[in-house]
Protein backbone atom coordinates (compact mmCIF):
# COMPACT_ATOMS: atom_id res chain seq x y z
CA UNK A 1 0.00 0.00 0.00
CA UNK A 2 1.50 3.35 -1.07
CA UNK A 3 1.80 5.82 1.80
CA UNK A 4 0.85 9.35 0.74
CA UNK A 5 1.73 12.68 2.36
CA UNK A 6 -0.43 15.66 1.40
CA UNK A 7 0.70 19.28 1.60
CA UNK A 8 -2.20 21.74 1.72
CA UNK A 9 -2.72 25.39 2.61
CA UNK A 10 -6.44 26.07 2.69
CA UNK A 11 -9.89 24.71 1.97
CA UNK A 12 -8.79 21.14 1.27
CA UNK A 13 -11.39 20.09 -1.29
CA UNK A 14 -8.76 18.19 -3.28
CA UNK A 15 -7.66 16.43 -0.09
CA UNK A 16 -11.30 15.54 0.50
CA UNK A 17 -11.58 14.09 -3.00
CA UNK A 18 -8.49 11.92 -2.40
CA UNK A 19 -9.88 10.68 0.92
CA UNK A 20 -13.23 9.93 -0.77
CA UNK A 21 -11.51 7.74 -3.37
CA UNK A 22 -9.51 6.08 -0.58
CA UNK A 23 -12.65 5.31 1.44
CA UNK A 24 -14.35 3.94 -1.66
CA UNK A 25 -11.47 1.48 -2.07
CA UNK A 26 -10.39 3.02 -5.37
CA UNK A 27 -6.76 3.64 -4.34
CA UNK A 28 -3.99 1.21 -3.45
CA UNK A 29 -2.79 4.16 -1.37
CA UNK A 30 -3.40 5.68 2.01
CA UNK A 31 -3.01 9.29 3.14
CA UNK A 32 -0.89 8.97 6.29
CA UNK A 33 0.05 12.59 6.88
CA UNK A 34 -1.27 16.06 6.06
CA UNK A 35 1.06 19.03 6.46
CA UNK A 36 -0.33 22.58 6.37
CA UNK A 37 1.52 25.87 6.42
CA UNK A 38 -1.45 27.76 7.91
CA UNK A 39 -2.68 26.93 11.42
CA UNK A 40 -6.30 27.78 10.51
CA UNK A 41 -6.48 25.82 7.24
CA UNK A 42 -9.83 23.95 6.95
CA UNK A 43 -7.79 21.11 5.42
CA UNK A 44 -6.39 20.42 8.89
CA UNK A 45 -9.83 19.87 10.45
CA UNK A 46 -10.91 17.81 7.53
CA UNK A 47 -7.92 15.48 7.87
CA UNK A 48 -8.23 15.33 11.65
CA UNK A 49 -11.92 14.39 11.44
CA UNK A 50 -10.98 11.48 9.23
CA UNK A 51 -8.26 10.23 11.54
CA UNK A 52 -5.31 11.38 9.44
CA UNK A 53 -2.24 12.64 11.28
CA UNK A 54 -1.72 16.38 10.78
CA UNK A 55 1.18 18.74 11.24
CA UNK A 56 1.44 22.50 11.01
CA UNK A 57 4.71 23.67 9.52
CA UNK A 58 4.63 27.44 9.49
CA UNK A 59 6.95 29.14 7.07
CA UNK A 60 7.64 32.32 8.98
CA UNK A 61 10.01 34.81 7.47
CA UNK A 62 12.30 34.56 10.50
CA UNK A 63 12.79 30.86 10.00
CA UNK A 64 14.77 29.79 7.00
CA UNK A 65 12.53 28.22 4.38
CA UNK A 66 15.04 25.44 3.67
CA UNK A 67 15.24 24.46 7.35
CA UNK A 68 11.45 24.17 7.74
CA UNK A 69 11.10 22.24 4.51
CA UNK A 70 13.89 19.86 5.47
CA UNK A 71 11.98 19.25 8.70
CA UNK A 72 8.88 18.52 6.59
CA UNK A 73 10.90 16.18 4.42
CA UNK A 74 12.20 14.28 7.46
CA UNK A 75 8.68 13.93 8.80
CA UNK A 76 7.42 12.56 5.48
CA UNK A 77 10.33 10.10 5.27
CA UNK A 78 9.80 8.98 8.88
CA UNK A 79 6.19 8.14 8.10
CA UNK A 80 7.33 6.03 5.16
CA UNK A 81 5.72 8.30 2.56
CA UNK A 82 6.28 7.18 -1.03
CA UNK A 83 4.34 9.97 -2.75
CA UNK A 84 3.94 13.63 -1.80
CA UNK A 85 0.82 15.34 -3.17
CA UNK A 86 0.55 19.12 -3.30
CA UNK A 87 -3.18 19.75 -2.99
CA UNK A 88 -3.58 23.51 -2.93
CA UNK A 89 -0.18 24.17 -1.36
CA UNK A 90 0.57 27.85 -1.79
CA UNK A 91 4.35 27.95 -1.30
CA UNK A 92 7.24 27.36 -3.63
CA UNK A 93 9.33 24.45 -2.42
CA UNK A 94 13.05 24.80 -1.86
CA UNK A 95 15.37 23.05 -4.35
CA UNK A 96 16.59 20.61 -1.67
CA UNK A 97 13.03 19.47 -0.94
CA UNK A 98 12.22 19.13 -4.64
CA UNK A 99 15.35 17.06 -5.27
CA UNK A 100 14.57 14.73 -2.38
CA UNK A 101 11.12 13.97 -3.76
CA UNK A 102 11.97 14.03 -7.46
CA UNK A 103 9.63 11.70 -9.36
CA UNK A 104 7.67 11.16 -6.14
CA UNK A 105 5.79 14.44 -5.88
CA UNK A 106 2.79 15.70 -7.85
CA UNK A 107 0.82 18.94 -7.94
CA UNK A 108 -2.54 20.05 -9.28
CA UNK A 109 -2.73 23.43 -10.99
CA UNK A 110 -5.97 25.06 -12.19
CA UNK A 111 -4.91 25.84 -15.76
CA UNK A 112 -3.82 23.97 -18.84
CA UNK A 113 -0.06 24.22 -18.31
CA UNK A 114 2.15 25.73 -19.57
CA UNK A 115 -0.50 28.46 -19.81
CA UNK A 116 -0.64 30.56 -16.66
CA UNK A 117 2.24 28.73 -14.99
CA UNK A 118 3.32 30.37 -11.75
CA UNK A 119 0.07 32.31 -11.40
CA UNK A 120 -1.65 32.31 -8.02
CA UNK A 121 -4.99 33.07 -9.72
CA UNK A 122 -4.87 31.28 -13.06
CA UNK A 123 -8.67 31.18 -13.38
CA UNK A 124 -8.92 35.00 -13.16
CA UNK A 125 -5.93 35.30 -15.50
CA UNK A 126 -7.65 33.02 -18.01
CA UNK A 127 -10.75 35.26 -17.96
CA UNK A 128 -8.65 38.41 -18.26
CA UNK A 129 -6.79 36.93 -21.21
CA UNK A 130 -10.04 35.96 -22.92
CA UNK A 131 -9.14 32.32 -23.52
CA UNK A 132 -12.01 30.06 -24.65
CA UNK A 133 -10.68 26.89 -23.07
CA UNK A 134 -8.80 26.42 -19.83
CA UNK A 135 -8.77 23.56 -17.32
CA UNK A 136 -6.41 21.84 -14.92
CA UNK A 137 -3.18 19.90 -14.94
CA UNK A 138 -1.66 17.27 -12.68
CA UNK A 139 2.11 17.17 -13.04
CA UNK A 140 5.25 15.91 -11.36
CA UNK A 141 7.05 18.63 -9.47
CA UNK A 142 10.53 19.63 -10.54
CA UNK A 143 12.64 22.73 -9.89
CA UNK A 144 10.62 24.81 -12.39
CA UNK A 145 7.46 26.26 -10.86
CA UNK A 146 4.46 24.47 -12.44
CA UNK A 147 6.92 23.17 -15.04
CA UNK A 148 7.39 19.46 -14.32
CA UNK A 149 6.34 16.58 -16.61
CA UNK A 150 2.57 16.54 -17.17
CA UNK A 151 0.65 13.49 -15.97
CA UNK A 152 -2.87 14.47 -17.02
CA UNK A 153 -5.00 17.41 -18.09
CA UNK A 154 -8.69 18.19 -18.39
CA UNK A 155 -10.10 20.97 -20.55
CA UNK A 156 -12.91 23.23 -19.33
CA UNK A 157 -14.74 25.63 -21.65
CA UNK A 158 -14.97 29.27 -20.62
CA UNK A 159 -18.63 30.23 -20.88
CA UNK A 160 -20.13 33.60 -21.72
CA UNK A 161 -20.85 35.35 -18.43
CA UNK A 162 -18.36 33.29 -16.42
CA UNK A 163 -16.71 34.98 -13.48
CA UNK A 164 -13.73 33.72 -11.56
CA UNK A 165 -15.95 31.87 -9.10
CA UNK A 166 -18.08 30.00 -11.62
CA UNK A 167 -15.09 29.07 -13.76
CA UNK A 168 -13.06 27.95 -10.72
CA UNK A 169 -15.95 25.74 -9.58
CA UNK A 170 -16.11 23.91 -12.92
CA UNK A 171 -12.32 23.50 -13.00
CA UNK A 172 -12.37 22.20 -9.44
CA UNK A 173 -14.83 19.45 -10.42
CA UNK A 174 -12.21 18.22 -12.88
CA UNK A 175 -9.39 18.54 -10.34
CA UNK A 176 -11.34 16.31 -7.96
CA UNK A 177 -11.35 13.58 -10.59
CA UNK A 178 -7.91 14.08 -12.12
CA UNK A 179 -5.80 14.21 -8.95
CA UNK A 180 -7.08 10.99 -7.31
CA UNK A 181 -6.87 9.24 -10.69
CA UNK A 182 -3.20 10.28 -11.00
CA UNK A 183 -2.53 8.97 -7.47
CA UNK A 184 -4.23 5.73 -8.39
CA UNK A 185 -2.09 5.34 -11.51
CA UNK A 186 1.07 6.12 -9.53
CA UNK A 187 0.15 3.66 -6.78
CA UNK A 188 -0.51 0.99 -9.39
CA UNK A 189 2.93 1.60 -10.93
CA UNK A 190 1.35 2.68 -14.22
CA UNK A 191 3.21 6.00 -14.62
CA UNK A 192 6.62 6.21 -16.31
CA UNK A 193 8.52 9.46 -16.78
CA UNK A 194 10.35 9.59 -20.10
CA UNK A 195 12.07 12.98 -20.31
CA UNK A 196 9.25 15.52 -20.37
CA UNK A 197 6.65 12.94 -21.22
CA UNK A 198 4.72 10.86 -18.73
CA UNK A 199 3.49 7.59 -20.16
CA UNK A 200 0.44 6.13 -18.41
CA UNK A 201 -0.34 2.47 -18.94
CA UNK A 202 -4.00 1.55 -19.09
CA UNK A 203 -5.86 0.16 -16.11
C1 LIG B 1 -7.07 24.27 -6.34
O1 LIG B 1 -7.72 24.97 -7.36
C2 LIG B 1 -5.67 23.87 -6.77
O2 LIG B 1 -5.57 23.56 -8.12
C3 LIG B 1 -4.90 25.12 -6.48
O3 LIG B 1 -5.42 25.59 -5.27
C4 LIG B 1 -6.78 25.15 -5.15
C5 LIG B 1 -6.86 24.41 -3.86
O4 LIG B 1 -8.18 24.05 -3.53
N1 LIG B 1 -3.48 24.86 -6.47
P1 LIG B 1 -8.48 23.06 -2.33
O5 LIG B 1 -7.74 23.58 -1.10
O6 LIG B 1 -8.00 21.69 -2.71
O7 LIG B 1 -9.95 23.12 -2.15
Describe the structure in your own words:
Helices cover 35% and strands 26% of the residues. The protein has helices spanning 13-23, 42-49, 65-78, 95-100, 122-129, 164-187, and strands spanning 2-8, 29-36, 53-56, 83-86, 105-109, 133-140, 150-157, 191-194, 197-200. The radius of gyration is 16 Å and the shape is globular. 5-O-phosphono-beta-D-ribofuranosylamine is lined by residues 8, 10-14, 87-88, 108-110, 172, 175. 5-O-phosphono-beta-D-ribofuranosylamine (GRF) binds next to helix 1, strand 5 and helix 6.
Keywords:
single chain, 203 residues, alpha/beta, 7-stranded mixed beta sheet, two-stranded antiparallel sheet, globular, binds 5-O-phosphono-beta-D-ribofuranosylamine
Helix proportion of residues, in percent?
Answer: 25-40%
What are the bound molecules? 5-O-phosphono-beta-D-ribofuranosylamine
* Main sheet summary: 7 strands, mixed
Categorize the overall geometry: globular
Order of helices and strands: EHEHEHEHEHEEHEE
Structural class: alpha/beta
Mean pLDDT: 96
Number of strands: 9
Strand % is: 25-35%
Rg, nearest Å: 16 Å
How are the strands of the largest sheet arranged? 3-2-1-4-5-6-7
Q: If helices are DSSP runs of H or I spanning 4 or more residues, what is the number of helices? A: 6
Regions with pLDDT < 50 over 5+ consecutive residues?
none
The separation of the N and C termini measures 17 Å
Topology:
Layout: E1 2-8, H1 13-23, E2 29-36, H2 42-49, E3 53-56, H3 65-78, E4 83-86, H4 95-100, E5 105-109, H5 122-129, E6 133-140, E7 150-157, H6 164-187, E8 191-194, E9 197-200
Parallel strand pairs: 1-2, 1-4, 2-3, 4-5
Antiparallel strand pairs: 5-6, 6-7, 8-9
The structure holds 5-O-phosphono-beta-D-ribofuranosylamine.
